[in-house]
Write a sequence for this structure.
């Protein structure tokens, strides 16, 4: 090997160590390696920064914005409720209902933001049914990973390999080009996951459940059953309104008559007014329940703005609100906020909100703009103003727009009407133009560390290829695995990628292995594109540790997992996936 090749090998080894130790962000580690190779003349400026002009990082950034829009509009909330159902024991049937749709969605929505938006939905669903989130979150992550290998836009790693392929002079992957290998391995992994996970995953409390001081105050709200909504004609239990933890359906008002206590077999009708009492944070979640709308929605729509969020505000003794009703104070116009519920002296207030005379110490649950606390915290109107989580209900009305946009991106990309990059950028621009997300929200939705990491890996990959290091390693590789034939060579590439992606990030692993794998394919007479597909699918298939793939890291805390939990569930899935990738690639290579 040349001096440059040995130097590149040393830099790559140091980069591996840095990524494995995880002392600094992965993006900084890989960018540092690229800059080192540039400074010492191993690669030139064009090679070092080719990733920044490659379509891959820009496409990923735009897809993050679309995923944020789906998250904000609660587009997936009805799907989660329908997938998991009102009854569940965390067994194979429940996991099948969860994982197959998640994998299907992940094939078209980048899996990292998908898991990000699904975690709170599933955690909330499990908590309301007194189930452990640890039963569902590792399967969620694995399903998203597996689904991401089905199409080229399913995960950033596929786009990285596609970009590297394009940089090497080959056409990029089409949308479904990787689907035979990716889809087959995903199916094998899913079946294994569904059968194994219920037996090996423990019952653990998530980090959020372990926190002390969850809100104990109860509020009282009214929700109206919408005409033609999903809950019409269902019983209270079938609609999933019977076993809500922290929220109780205390009364149904129908044609002016109260039905109490509420029988779980009571059938819901359009126009029923359902009266709930519960914790503030869970009451907020009710605003997103498919088929129900708040009885106060006319006030909420009057301040319709996707920037609005929920607050709790406590009325002070010197407040001008004391002794007056909301109508008398013209509350909505004066404060730019809509009151959803009132809590008083340890009990939720159950009267009509407009007729309640406010008292000092009353806590209002309200919807307002993000600067509500800033505007009123120095006044005498409220003693305390605290922000609550939860997406504004106004945003959910734009869910159909987001869904149509996502389907348009998928459909046009599938028929190659327009490049994926162009479609993703247009979709992101539409989300901002229609105020589904603001410019600042779009900016915050983009994980710059991931984008920078993707761009920086191209420089390292170029050095491995141009210095002859890739060819040298490929020759050694063929000498080692060649006697085993095509199966041995493919197995060697897949196992090398598997080990690499568990030690360092999946994108970095793909960038390092890609030039070596292409050289191996050329030397052994195999189809380079099929070997590239094997690298892309394998690099995305990380199941053994919480650190090998970002979605695993994301569910680590919320699921209350330990390191060994990923080994228990991941080893069988990994074996099934690797075996399938090798078999399908060998047949086509």
């Amino acid at each position: 090997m040349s001096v440059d090749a040995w130097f590149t090998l040393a830099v790559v080894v140091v980069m591996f160590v840095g990524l494995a130790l995880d002392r600094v962000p992965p993006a900084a580690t890989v960018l540092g390696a690229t800059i080192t190779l540039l400074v010492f003349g191993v690669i030139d400026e064009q090679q070092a920064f080719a990733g920044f002009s490659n379509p891959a990082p820009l496409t990923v950034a735009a897809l993050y914005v679309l995923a944020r829009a789906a998250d904000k509009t609660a587009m997936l909330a009805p799907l989660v409720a329908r997938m998991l159902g009102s009854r569940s024991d965390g067994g194979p049937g429940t996991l099948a209902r969860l994982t197959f749709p998640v994998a299907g969605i992940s094939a078209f929505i980048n899996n990292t933001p998908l898991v990000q938006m699904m975690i709170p939905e599933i955690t909330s669903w499990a908590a309301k049914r007194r189930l452990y989130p640890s039963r569902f979150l590792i399967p969620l992550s694995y399903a998203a990973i597996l689904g991401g290998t089905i199409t080229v836009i399913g995960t950033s790693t596929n786009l990285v390999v596609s970009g590297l392929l394009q940089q090497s002079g080959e056409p990029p992957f089409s949308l479904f080009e990787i689907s035979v290998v990716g889809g087959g391995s995903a199916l094998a992994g899913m079946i294994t996951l569904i059968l194994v996970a219920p037996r090996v995953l423990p019952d653990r409390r998530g980090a959020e459940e372990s926190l002390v001081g969850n809100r104990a105050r109860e509020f009282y709200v009214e929700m109206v059953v919408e005409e033609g909504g999903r809950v019409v004609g269902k019983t209270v239990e079938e609609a999933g309104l019977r076993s809500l933890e922290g929220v109780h359906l205390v009364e149904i008002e129908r044609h002016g008559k109260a039905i109490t206590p509420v029988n779980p077999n009571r059938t819901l009708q359009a126009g029923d007014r359902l009266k709930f009492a519960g914790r503030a944070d869970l009451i907020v979640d009710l605003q997103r329940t498919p088929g129900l709308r708040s009885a106060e929605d006319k006030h909420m729509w009057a301040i319709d703005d996707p920037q609005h969020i929920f607050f709790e505000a406590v009325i002070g003794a010197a407040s001008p609100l004391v002794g007056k009703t909301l109508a008398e104070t013209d509350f909505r116009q004066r404060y730019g906020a809509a009151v959803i519920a009132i809590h008083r002296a340890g009990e939720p207030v159950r009267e009509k909100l407009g007729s309640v005379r406010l008292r000092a110490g009353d806590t209002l649950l309200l919807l307002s703009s993000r600067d509500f606390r800033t505007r009123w915290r120095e006044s005498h109107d409220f003693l305390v103003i605290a922000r609550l989580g939860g997406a504004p209900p106004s945003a959910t009305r734009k869910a159909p727009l987001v869904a149509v946009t996502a389907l348009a991106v998928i459909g046009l990309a599938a028929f190659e009407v327009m490049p994926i990059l162009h479609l993703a950028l247009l979709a992101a621009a539409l989300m901002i133009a229609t105020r589904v997300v603001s410019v600042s929200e779009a900016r915050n939705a983009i994980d710059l560390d991931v984008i920078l990491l993707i761009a920086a890996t191209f420089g390292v990959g170029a050095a491995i290829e141009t210095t002859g290091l890739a060819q040298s390693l490929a020759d050694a590789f063929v000498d080692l695995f060649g006697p085993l034939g095509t199966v041995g060579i493919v197995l060697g590439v897949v196992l090398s990628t598997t080990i690499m992606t568990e030690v360092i990030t999946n994108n970095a692993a793909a960038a390092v292995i890609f030039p070596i794998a292409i050289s191996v394919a050329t030397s052994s007479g195999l189809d380079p594109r099929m070997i590239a597909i094997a690298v892309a699918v394998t690099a995305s298939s990380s199941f053994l540790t919480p650190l090998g793939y970002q979605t695993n890291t994301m569910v680590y805390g919320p699921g209350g997992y330990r390191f060994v939990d990923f080994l228990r569930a991941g080893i069988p899935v990994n074996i099934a996936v690797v075996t399938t990738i090798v078999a399908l690639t060998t047949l086509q290579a």
Remarks:
- Confidence is low (pLDDT under 50) at residues 207-216.
